[in-house]
């Protein structure tokens, strides 16, 4: 079956610049396009977070450049509360969608999933190209939301489209947060600045993004199931492939729900429907006619049915990359391969049954809250299995502390730090206090934000030589690691302290409340840490682009790794394996096999290379997958 | 590098755990009947979380210290895992996490799975961008009829009270929540525009106010005083200053206040707001 499908999908190497680098069908080019998109988006998201911190720490301070750029949103250079809230919204939206969903899956998944399973491309190359370009359009639309609200001239054009398209609020987008709860998000500008064209464009951007992700997910699933090379049984796949596969299933099942929700929300706004708007509203001094019977909670259910799996969409690829990289530089097989596969699947599937924990205090039935709560804490079990197995992998290892390894170890540390507070937040009784406080912000930033990004940093340093044929600078990489690792803890551990005193999220200023008084110093401390950490990312960008052209030449297998991407040329040829489909004889992580000449056995090495190895293994976890 | 990383992870662990231990940034004082039970559930949880966090991080620090590559070190151990350990670990964590989950429902269930006890004092709460309205039934303890169609902020009819209803005559609508001490309070939570959230940190209680819904909740406050009341659900540009106070009064002072007609109610409320002080933070 696998062989037959190969023939169908083979396409010749393109020659022109446009087909080669712009509208490319090559999964490797598309992967790099996704990564470049994420590298662009993350700059926007990061700058926004620094602006937010500046506003929180020094409210009322005039930043002249802000006054020049956003004369309405920051008159005299002083950021307005609505400007701050639009930063909150856009920071969250851009980071979650255009960074955490693009680079890990669309980027590294696209580039390495086909190679790691020995395929010559994705199953549907045209679909793959479309998924990127659709996503790209989504990004342009979200940028348009910034301009439409932030720039008076562009805003005036949009305002001509009708009352729901009123723009030019001086913000950088809508002010409803990345969750966009109606009725705030459904009512238009009467509900506040930024809720006109900015909100419409925000919804449209996300809807487009959903379509792009769906196309990508179909492709990943089909490719993985149909196009594995000879000998590449499911249980011989690298854990990265399992992660991308599970992520694709999550995306396939969750994005359509958000897409549906987004369309309904847009209809409420522009077509006068009432899916989410109840009757009898009175907003900004006047009654809201025409609407009746809608439910604000319906949106929350639809949003979080997507939103919770989305958390795993962001982090599972990081888990895959971390497992892969830990094993490689520990020079040791992964501890409990099968348990890792089951755990990743369990996390993914359980992830569909816990969305209600975002809604304990929303007015949802308190009985369903209890069910959601118990299911939520049970996700801790597969997460603990993964942590245990990562430590088990490092136990008795011979660790090489390369930059990718440092980031992978950092991932484990951050995943534990961020994930474990889920045990607090998942309890209904404790949510009375912690819901919508900085404790929540701390939790999800550490686990889905920073840990995921550490997974991607690890992946970047690890696969860069294969992608570009050159090594990234190790000394710059290590400097980047140390400052970032300590920096993110310095930012997000204090968030827990703020949560302990009850500091609410999404406040433009904290000065109004006495109970927040003793956090003011902490808020400033976090800001300083955030600015330093953000600035150090420049070192990463420099290292990335400098190494592309000036880095040390990389060999085909610089890390002495075992999986298929390291068997082919660097960078890989157009069809990945120069016309010769590889044949797999080993599990993915055969390191330090006793009796083998080297401390690693490539997956393609003929059987017998591991003579005397592993035969007495009681567990047999993934060592020779096809036997199971 | 391994040793430096190990030490760095240990220091971070020590700092994080120390921050919780030191309690400089901690819950404000609890003033509700269920509050101490929330706090003790948190204490149990944070001990479990702290131990698991510290164990994982110290373990991580230890393996990166111990198993760093030194030229003299032999090859890494060739092992694909250990199923028995895996099962033991899974069962142990499952038992701990599920037990926590079950315990974590108790306070919730005691408040939310029961209706307000008899004798509760009822207040209707109507939130709006960016202020709070608390509707008191007055002397007759019967609420006047309200209708969203009658809401008119410019005429100061914030909750749409029907002035023609005789029951509405003695009703008061004020911007401060006043409740009696040691007597169950039932709030009927409504919103007239977007979703808001009722949040008093000392109360250990939070509940959204959703347009189109009337959500009934109840609790008992055990300490008199003045406490800040905040909105905890993003509701628009001035969300950060959608602030009010909760005044907790002795029963006598309370009954006297709520029997007053609107004008006098507000004047007396102002006096009481001055009389009681916020807690020391």
Overview of the molecule:
The complex is a heterodimer of chains A (628) and B (281). With 628 residues, chain A is an all-alpha fold. Chain A is 60% helix and 1% strand. Chain A folds into 3 domains: 27-294, Cytochrome c oxidase-like, subunit I domain (Cytochrome C Oxidase, Chain A, Up-down Bundle); 304-554, Cytochrome C Oxidase, Chain A, CATH 1.20.210.10; 557-628, no CATH class. By secondary structure, chain B is an alpha+beta fold. Helix content of chain B is 37%, strand content 21%. In chain B, the strands form 2 sheets. Chain B has a 5-stranded mixed beta sheet with strand order 3-2-1-5-8. A 5-stranded mixed beta sheet of chain B has the order 4-10-9-6-7. In chain B, β6 (196-200) and β7 form a beta hairpin. Chain B is elongated. Chain B starts with a helix and ends in a 6-residue tail after the last helix. Classes of the chains: A mainly alpha (628), B alpha+beta (281).
Please state the second-level CATH architecture of the largest domain in chain A: Up-down Bundle
Backbone structural class of chain B: alpha+beta
CATH fourth-tier homologous superfamily of the largest domain in chain A? Cytochrome c oxidase-like, subunit I domain
CATH fold naming of the largest domain in chain A: Cytochrome C Oxidase, Chain A
Q: State Rg of chain B.
A: 26 Å
Give the DSSP E fraction of chain B (strand runs of 2 or more residues): 15-25%
Biggest beta sheet attributes of chain A: 2 strands, antiparallel
Please write the string of helix (H) and strand (E) elements of chain A: HHHHHHHHHHEEHHHHHHHHHH
What is the terminal separation of chain A in angstroms? 21 Å
Residue runs with pLDDT of under 50 for 5 or more positions of chain A: 1-8, 612-628
Would you tell me the overall average pLDDT of chain B? 96
Report helical residue fraction of chain A: 55-70%
| Largest β sheet strand count, sense and barrel closure of chain B | 5 strands, mixed
- Number of DSSP E strands of chain A: 2
Mean pLDDT of chain A: 94
What is the level 1 CATH name of the largest domain in chain A? Answer: Mainly Alpha
